[in-house]
Amino acid sequence: MRHPYLPPPYPPRPERSAELRQRFAEEARSERPDLSALCLLIGAETDGSLDEAGIDAAQAELDRLAGELPYRPGGPDAWAEAVRGLLGDRYGFHGTPGDYQRLESSLLHEVLRRRRGLPILLSVVWLEVARRAGAPVYGVALPGHFVVGFGTAAERVLADPFDGGRVLTGPDADLLVVGATGAPLRPSMLQPAPPLEVVQRVLNNIRAWAAARPERSDVGLRAVELALLIPSHPARLRYERGQLLVQRGEFVAGAEELAAYADLIEVVDEPAAGKVRQEARIARAKLN
C-alpha cells in the first residue's frame, strides 16, 4: 500500500501483514527462537517489497557466507580472526555514523545487500554466519553498542562488527561502555544476549528511528506491535501503541489502548493511571 507523499519502504498488504505477524509470534514463542528468521520477518513487516523469495535469498546468503569460513580454524581468537577476515575484509561489512540515520540499517535483508548497518544488525550477520559454521559465538549487548563474543567466559574474545570485526582488547571494551554510560564496564554486561533480547533491541532501534520522524509513525506502530508479540514484553509498549494510534488519528482504538494500560498500572501507580485515563478521555473528545 503506497502513500503518495512518503518515500519507501511501504508496508505489506493487510493479509500479508497478518501472516507475517502470526509467524513472528510463533517463532518468538518457540523453544529456540531463530534470530535470522525473526529479523527477516521484521524486515518483511517493515518493507512490503520483501517477499518469500527475498527471505529465502537472505537465508541462502547467510548459508553461503558460512560456507566460505575455514573448517574449525582453532580457538576463539582464530574464529574471531576468520570471521573478521571474511565479513570485514573480504566482503566489507561495516558501519558508519551515517548509517544511524537510515531505516535500512535495521533491516537484515538490506544489511546483507548494502553490507552496512547498525552495530546490532551487523552483529546479527556475524552471529548467523559464524553459528552456521560451528563457531562458539554469541551476542553481547554492551550499553549503547552491540558486539559479538567468541568462546567461554574464561577465554572470551570480543569483536566489533561495526568496526569491520576488529578484535577488542579489555581497554577497548571499557572505553565503549564508558563512552556510552560514563560508568566502567561490569562483568554482567558481558553475558550472552538471548535471541529475543536481540530482537527487542532491533525493534527499539526502529521505534527510535520512527519517533524522530513523526511522518513515519506507521513504521513506529508496526515495530511496537511486533514487540508486543514477544513474550514478557514491557507493559509500557501498550502506552506507546495507544499514543501512536492517537497520533495517527485512530482516536477510539488509541483511547481503548490507553485505558487498558491504565488498568494495568493502577495497582502499582494510581496517579500515573489517572493521567493516562485523562489522555484517553482527551483522545475520545477529538472525535467531536
UniProtKB/TrEMBL annotation:
Residue ranges of the region described as Disordered: 1-30
InterPro entries per the UniProt record, alphabetical: SirB1_N
Compositional bias annotation for Pro residues: 1-12
Domain Protein SirB1 N-terminal, first and last residues per copy: 58-204
Ranges of Basic and acidic residues composition bias in the record: 13-30
Top-rank lineage group of the source organism: Bacteria
PANTHER family listed in its UniProt record: F-BOX ONLY PROTEIN 21 (PTHR31350:SF21), SI:DKEY-261L7.2 (PTHR31350)
Family from the record: Belongs to the UPF0162 family.
Protein name in the entry: Transglutaminase-like domain-containing protein
Organism: Streptomyces rameus
